[in-house]
Amino acid sequence: MGIQIRLMQPEDYTSAIQLWQELPGLGLSSADREEAIQAFLKRNPNTCFAAAQDKIILGTVLGGSDGRRGYLYHLAVHADYQKQGLGSTLVQTCLDALQSQGIEKCHIFVIADNQEGIQFWQKIGWQRRGDILVMSKEIR
User: Fold this and answer.
1) Which residues of 69-84 are buried (b: 16+ CB within 10 A; e: fewer)?
2) Is position 106 within any domain?
């Protein structure tokens, strides 16, 4: 059976976190604990996707919105399946789902020294912005 793009399910967490941990350039934090990801999936049930083959997760993308802008997180493709269009397909599937909810613009966060990631995003049409920067604060 070929690779299928489908909505990500709560039971995909174990396979997804393993994939995320194996990929360089993908930043993980306490927001990636199982309960946090389950809550994200519950809030965004139609914008998070997995690429699966025979129940094995080969890729993921988490999409969500604040009702105004969309945000993508954890685009990940297993190393053996990279550079075959799977990442682009996951991104487009997620963008289509966000657009169907009325979202017209989407943002991503890329770790500054992740050159491979930056090149991927630019290759598929995303623009690097120099006019904004991200600031964060822990509130727990």
Assistant:
1) ebbbbbbbbbeeebee
2) yes
Q: In this predicted model, what pLDDT tens digit does every residue of 49-74 receive, in sequence order?
A: 999 998 899 999 999 999 999 999 99
Phi and psi at residue 11, to the nearest 5°: -75, -5
- For the chain, the first-to-last Cα distance in angstroms comes to 44
Local mean pLDDT, 10-residue blocks, the chain (140 residues):
93 97 92 97 98 94 96 97 96 98 95 92 94 88
CB atoms within 10 A of CB 127: 7
Positive or negative, the Cα torsion across 23, 8, 41, 15? negative
64: three-class secondary structure by DSSP: strand
Domains of the chain: total: 1
Which residue has 């487009």 as its token pair? 92
| Domain assignment of residue 134, yes or no | no
Amino acid sitting at position 131:
D
Q: Please choose, from the candidates 116, 122, 59, 110, the residue with its C-alpha nearest in 3D space to the C-alpha of residue 86.
A: 59
Give the predicted TM-score (pTM) of the model: 0.94
Q: Could you tell me the residue range of the domain that residue 44 belongs to?
A: 4-123
pLDDT of residue 97: 98
